[in-house]
Structure formats: C-alpha cells, structure tokens
Design goal:
Number of helices: 3
Largest sheet: 2 strands, antiparallel
Strand content: 15-25%
Shape: elongated
Structural class: alpha+beta
Number of strands: 2
C-alpha cells in the first residue's frame, strides 16, 4: 500500500527551528520532531493515488 506524506508548512518549520535555537538544548529524537510538527505518513487510498 502506498503512503502519503503529510508535511508541515514552511512557517511551522521555521517557527520550530527558531524555538529550538532559543532553547539551546540538543535536538529531540526524530519521532518527537515529527509529532510536534504534524509530519506523518498516512496510507494512501486509491482516490488519493489517482491525483
């Protein structure tokens, strides 16, 4: 089954990165970043795959 990537907007990524810079801590793990930005993989349906 195909997957569809749900990506955050550029503004959301910029805001996230700015926040990370001001905190001056090591970055969280990849799964935490994806969850905070709403960056997900979803199963594609046939309707979406035709687009």
């Amino acid at each position: 089954m195909d997957k569809i990537v749900i990506a955050p907007s550029k503004e959301a990524v910029r805001q996230f990165m700015q926040q990370r810079l001001t905190e001056r801590r090591p970055p969280p793990d990849v799964q935490t970043i994806r969850r905070q930005l709403g960056w997900e993989l979803q199963a594609a349906t046939r309707e979406a795959a035709k687009r």
